[in-house]
Design a protein that fits this description.
The protein has 2 domains: 40 residues, no CATH class; 39 residues, no CATH class. A hairpin with a 2-residue loop joins β3 and β4. Helix content is 31%, strand content 30%. The protein has 2 helices and 4 strands, in the order ββαββα. The mean pLDDT is 86. The strands form 2 sheets. The chain has a two-stranded antiparallel sheet. Strands 3-4 form a two-stranded antiparallel ribbon. The chain is α+β, with helices and mostly antiparallel strands and 80 residues long.
């Protein structure tokens, strides 16, 4: 299994991309199970994509901040 993580933002705006292939690793089964749990959607959760100008953020309920919840609620209730 190939697992890729991209981190961006922060003070310098630096992007870090790393990939890990689990093939041949002693901990492959544990890493693969962890990856499956990490990407599995919540049983009744929604997925959101927030776009602000050219910034895109993909989110999954229930892991939303209060600000994200408020913005989503306002746009879904009042947006065109």
């Amino acid at each position: 299994m190939l697992i890729t993580v991209t981190r961006s933002g922060g003070f310098t705006g630096h992007q870090k991309l790393r990939a890990l292939d689990t093939a041949g690793r002693a901990d492959a089964a544990a890493l693969e199970a962890l990856a499956q749990r990490a990407v599995a959607p919540a049983a009744d959760g929604f997925h959101y994509r927030i776009t602000v100008d050219d910034e895109v953020l993909d989110l999954r309920d229930p892991a939303l901040t209060d600000a994200q919840r408020a913005l989503i609620r306002t746009v879904l209730d009042e947006g065109a």
